Every structure is written in structure tokens, then in C-alpha cells.
Structure prediction request, 646 residues.
Amino acid sequence: MNIAQQIADGISVSGILLLIALGLGITFGVMKVINMAHGELIMIGAYTSYVISTLADLPFIVAMAAAFVVTAIVGALMEVLIIRRLYGRPLETLLATFGISIILQQLVRIIFGPAGKSVSNPFNGALNIGSVYIPYLRLFIVGFAIMLVLITAYVLFRTKFGMLVRTVSQNRSMSDCLGINTPRIDMLTFAFGAGLTGIAGAVLAPLKNVAPTMGMDYLIDSFMTVVLGGVGSLLGTSLGSIVMGEANQLLTVFGGETGAKIIVFLLVIIVIRYKPEGLFKIERR
Amino acid sequence: MRRVATNNAFGVLLVLFLALFPMFSSDFRLELMGKFIVFIIFAIAMDLVWGYAGLLSLGHAVFFGLGGYMLAISYSLQNGVPSFMTRFDITEIPTLMKPLQSIPAALLIGLILPSILAGIIGFFIFKSKVSGVYFSLITLALAKLFEMLVVNLQMYTGGFNGLMGLPRFPIFGEPMSLTAYYYMVLIITVLVYLFARWLTNSHFGKILKSIRENESRISFFSYNASNYKIFIFIISGFLSGLAGMLYVPINGFFSPLDVGLNMSTMVILWLAIGGRGTLMGAAVGTLIINWMSNLLSEQYPELWQLFIGVIIVMVVLFFPDGIYGTLKNRFGTYFDSLLNRKIDENMEMEMEKRDYANNLS
Prediction:
């Protein structure tokens, strides 16, 4: 097997993981909400992309923007109606969002039917460097993932909204005292995280079959990535996805794709056991 | 004491109903009911871990499936090398599977292996600072991992299709009639329930509940909380394995769906809706949800799922004690207070005295 090709494939898997984990990095990492409906947000993003780019035949970039808006609205509703009432009770939140995931899955199934849909690939062709073969779509996903991380970092660390998000996550009661409207910030943060997840779904839609049940696998992958890299750190999530993605590809020597995944999951479980704060968590103070 | 009267009355009525069920139901219904009674064991096993010790395991079907697969593989090995193995040019039964050729041995292995696995997982997780949410995430990964493992080891487990065409109702190689099997399952379930009730009412059970409420405080009282958690996890694994094995003969096939996320989330549903932290809630939730899903999912499959999702959210937001817990708190105390108001008053005075004494000391 061509090792260069493996590494290149690993990079594209890393890009996918980074995309799906980024939104979770906000909702789980910053807000500490265990969102079991994360996979369903990806699914909604993918369906939005299907509606816009396949049914309405609009450009792909419109689909991505629409996916952000739609899932951000869904996320805001989730936060306001349900998650807000359960702060400080992580296991209850987990259960409630699990219920939400069933509802969203079923709503989509009722609207679009249980059969999978496919979204046409906006980037045909592939890049050939020597013997290494990378489809343009995957190249775009990696580039887009990096861009999205940079945008998120900018929003979190260079804007007033980002400053408020970090303030509230560090000390909620103090922020309240300083006159920050914390419930509003919570809603916006969750909507932002959900929106990022939706974009991920839209971008990944051409790659895989768009179906109501597509969320579950993404859910586990994204949680593993966020936890591996370190909860609450953008850099950690990025590095975590690179490690997961490369490991997923390079370990295929042992028993194919599923075998590699089994080994990676085992490794992640061991990492959580010994370093629950994640591999790349930088200790501040 | 005051809760015991309603609990007992309700439990006796439920068992009586289940025991009389074969007399007025068709074979088809009886088979379904048998399945659901097996699920009660699984729900009780989950309740011990989640409802009593406060550990939400998202991958409890791993133990259920492990027990079930042991018996299912054993059944498949009865007539020589099964077809899913010969397809991969395996002409001899693998050495590791040799013990499974005997059904009694498989029954034993199906109980011991899940317990050992639960012990290993429990030791691995609870002897560390991993807690709460991370425990749930690890078990979630485990469930997915086992599902993939079973699908991947196609030559030994039958892969994605699972093990089909298993003989119905033989326990020690001898076939049983449906009704006999039903009663056997019912008796085992009642025994499991009594055992679990004894366990949760014992000193051990009280410590479990205090671990759920405040782990650091119980640690200050020099109880080793992690050992208690490991122990209850092992018991739960054992009971889940038992449920998995009882499920195989009545279902007739066993597939990766029974070992992974699907089954794990199902049991959480039953418990959350029925009422976790009470054993009767586990039984009630399992029976109600399964019957309703069976009746409604044929006519309105889509709306039924939607309904389940809405119910879960509602239960979490407004009825955290579930159906049984809420009803019991609302009405149970009322009935009990009619029955033993005298005793209650005496007890409360006792309690007040004791509280006062505690405060002084």
C-alpha cells in the first residue's frame, strides 16, 4: 500500500472530523452541553444542502449559507425551549437532547421519506501528485475546515461576542453581575455552534448518502474527536481530528477500515481514562 | 415503610396479570409478552446502575448482546460447522468456540463472560477520576465498538445479518413449549426482581444511593465508592447477560442490533419513561413502551417515533421520576397514608427525634 496515499487520505478524513467536531467544540467544549442531537444537526445541514443545491438548483455556496441559518435557528430553539431549563444537570441534558434527536430524525423522515438522497458533487475531478490521488471535493473540505476554524477563532478571540462567550463560560454569576445578558449569550453561542455543525453537514452532503439516520455515526466520531483533543480548546479539537483521521487511515493495515476504527476507539477510550482533559489541553495557570 | 404497601400491591397485581396472561392470549401475543418480560430483567439491570448508582451507561447492550451471542453461537454449533463459517472456508469449529458446543456450558459462559467484562470495564473506569458524562461517553464508544466488532468478525458471528434460524425454546437441548418457556422466564424475572429489591434495600443499596446523591460525602465516611460502583456494575452485567440469553430462544435470531447502540438506547428509553430509581418503574416502563410501540408502530410507525421523542423530552423536563415514580408520589402516598396513618405518625415522630439527636451530636 502506498504510504503517501494513506497519509493524504488521512488528511482528508481529518478535515471531515474537524468539520463535524468544530460545532461540538463550541456546544460541548465551551458550554458543557452534551448534545446528543449533534448528529441530527449535521443531518439537517445535509438536507438543507439537498433542498437548495439539488431541488432548487442554486449554487453550493448558497446551500452552505442556508444550512448555517437553518441549523442555527434549530439550535436556538433547542436551547431556549429545552436545554436552558437543564443547566447544571448534564445527564438530564443528555437524555433530553437524545429525545430531540429522535424528534428531528423523525420529522425529517416524515418530510423527506426514509430513502437516502444524494447531493451532486460541486467539485468533479481529482488532483494527482505523483502517485497520490486526492479528489477536489476532499481538498475543498480540508481547506474549508481550516478556514472555518480560523473564522471561529477570530469570532471567539477577536470580537465582542466572542469575549462575552468566553466570559460567560468562565464565570456565569460574575457575568450576570456585570450586566451581561447571559441567557441571550447562551442562546447565541449554542446557535453559533449548531450553525457551524449545519455547515459541516452541507459540505459533507455530496460525500455520503443523505439519510435520516446518518447522524449517529457522526455523533460518536465528533465526541471522540473533541474529547481526544481536549474539551474547550479549538487547537485541541484541531489536533485531535488530525490524530484521529491519520490513525483511522494508517491503521487500516489491521483489518481494514472497521478494524482501524475499532483500534482508534479503544485508544480514545484509554486516553479518556488516563487523560480526561484530553491530549492537547494546555493548562492555563 | 410507607411506600412498601403500594409497591407490593402493585407488584402482586402485575405478576398475577402476567401469570394469567397465557390463558386469554394467542401464541403470537404470548411470545411478545415473553420477550417484554425478558426486557424487564435487562431494564432492572440497567436501573441498578443508572437509577440507583447514578451511572448513565450508554452501552449497556454490550452485556446483553455478549450473553445472547454466547447462547446463539452455541445453538448454531449444534449441527456441526454452521453455514456462515463454511462460507469462509472454516471446516472445523475454532478452538476458542469448542466449549460453546455444549449448551449448559454456553449458559454458564453467557453469565460469566458479561460479568467479567463488566468487572474489567468497571475497574478500568471507576478506578480513575473519570466521572459522570465521560463515563457515558466511554460506554457510548464501547457500544459502537462492540457493534463494529460483531459485524467485522463475520466468520464467527454471522456478521451484519446476525445468527438466524436458531431453534426455538431449547434450554438444555430439550425443546420446550412456548407456555412452559413463558412461565420459566416469568419466574426468573420475579426472582431477579426480588433479588434486586433485596439488594437495593440492603445497606449496600443505601450506600449506592448515597453515591448517586453525593459521592464525595460518602467517600469522606471512608466508604470506597469506586469498589461499590464496580460491584454493582458486575451485578448489572451478569443480569444483562442473563436477559440476553433468555431473549435468544424466544426471538429465534440474534443480530448486531441487539449488541450495540440500538438496544442500549432502547433500555434507556424504557427506564426514563417508566421511572428510574424504582424497580417497579423499570418493569412498568418496559411493558408499556413495548406494548404501545407494538400496537401503534404498525399503524402509525412515523408518528409513534415522534411521540416517543416528545415523551422523552417531556419526562425529562416535567416528570423526572417517570410514569411510575410520578404516579407513586402523587397517589401512592395518599393510599398508604389511608392504610397506615397511625404508623406514619409514630414514625415521623421517631424520625424527628432522631434528627434532633443527630443535630445535637
Remarks:
- The longest helix of chain B spans residues 225-251.
- Chain B has one domain: 2-345.
- Chain B touches chain A at residues 54, 56, 124-125, 128-130, 132-134, 136-138, 140-142, 144-145, 148-149, 151-152, 261, 265, 268, 272, 302, 305-306, 308-313, 316-317, 320 (CB under 8 Å).
- Chain B is about 75% helix and 0% strand.
